Amino acid sequence: MTSLLLQRTSLLVFLQEQVLAPLIQQSASSTECLRIWSIGCQAGDEASTLALLVQNLLPAESVEKPINLFATDADPAAISRARDFRYPAHLLPHLPETVHHLLKANASEYQLDPSLRRQILFGSHALLTQMPFPHLDLIRCHDSLADFTPVEQQIVFNRLAYALSPQGYLLLISSATSKPDAAYYQRVSGMFPLFQRTATAVPVQSLKWSKQWSAPPRSQSPLQEQNEIRDAYLEELQTTLEDREMAYQEVNQRYQELEQAYKDLEQIHLLKDDFLSLMSHEMRTPLTVLLATAQLLQRRPIHAQQEGTPENDPISQKRITKSLATIEQQALQLSRLLTELLDAARLRSDMFHLTPSSTDVVKLVREIITQQEMLTTRRIRLVNALETIIGIWDGMRLEQVVRNLLTNALKYSEPSTEIVMTLRYRFVAGQAREALISVEDQGRG
To answer: pLDDT per residue over 332-352, tens digit each?
Structure first.
């Protein structure tokens, strides 16, 4: 049951290098799938081998590109055998080692990986009574055309030419008494009967689909007639099953696409929730500072009257100026946060846009500590801080990080404890390369 394709290594190499490789290269820039028809699929090994060779030759970036491989035979029993074909262990050396990973081991046999097997469509087909598959890139014919009359052979060749795409190939494995019409085929190999489709259009009349033409009648016994009727029903049933299988594959593919789209939407929804939660947290802090500063300014005249201090007292004016500066700074912070909130493109790309500039980390941390101390009675102590640590950073992002660290420390530690912030250089090869900021609290975490 070993086919000529696997018995003849030279034919296997020729098919791989001279036929399939150019076809795959031509289809690389096309979105259409590669379509191959194996006529006379025998035991199924030739169709399976074609699928392996094509998958092996596909470029890495298009390894998921589907192929349509039709495998037909006039004998329903051959179709049943072909559907369940497995490579015996002794046939494995005839295959290129690069395709072995596409086979699934089962005891002493090997069968195609299920994802690759689903790309082969088996079914019954009679060349003289049924239409060929359209838009084919390669037809490999193993049917014995010598059983047909010369007229019938030419009709088959014309129909195959009609089914081939421009520049498609016809490879004849079996013998034929007639040669394909040179108007539609050009022989491209002297070693093997390989023909390439020419640009000449095939007239519909040459296909002989009119009701007046039919194959020569043959005498049949009642038993033969019953067998043919039975075979016709079986063929129709198998065709229906194949159609249902193709429909199932299509539905399954659409289901997987919808499932992936649902997962993507779910992930986007989670990102949206996280983003809104983060923005809410970020905007609450400057709003709290603004409210606290405004309340202090409202109480300032009342305290001045009670203490008998004039409103234009230098100390009072200095405090008011400092409070107004705090309000202005926090208003700018709110403006920046609103800009980030409206920037949906950055969120969708899962990237934060950084704006590096010269930033004094010590000054930034001291300002944050001062603002936080206005909102709490807790003590926040800065240790090991130099006078200045200037570097190229995104000041706004850095402020968000430090403020979040400090806010969390205040939130998750005991009210009676102290928060300690440390700010120092990290030296690499004797040079200051990094600024390290740490926040220490006495919380449970």
So the answer is: 677 666 666 655 555 555 555
The residue that leads in pLDDT, 351 or 174, is 174
Strands, E, within 107-163: which ranges?
Answer: 109-112, 120-124, 136-141
Alpha carbons 390 and 362: distance in angstroms, whole number: 8
Question: Which stretches of 77-131 are assigned E, i.e. beta strand?
Answer: 87-88, 103-106, 109-112, 120-124
Query: Under DSSP, is residue 385 helix (H, G, I), strand (E, B) or coil?
Result: coil
Residue ranges of alpha helices (H) inside 126-221 are 150-163
Q: What is the DSSP letter of 148?
A: S
What distance lies between CA 186 and its chain's CA centroid?
40
| Residue 164: predicted pLDDT | 92
Of residues 53 and 312, more confidence is placed in 53
Helical segments of 343-413, H only: 344-348, 361-373, 395-411
442 SS3 class? coil
Tens of pLDDT, residue by residue over 101-121, are 888 877 678 888 888 888 888
Q: How far is CA 427 from CA 53, 68, 430, in A?
A: 59, 63, 6
Sequence-distant (6+) residues with CB within 8 A of 198 are 183, 184, 185, 186
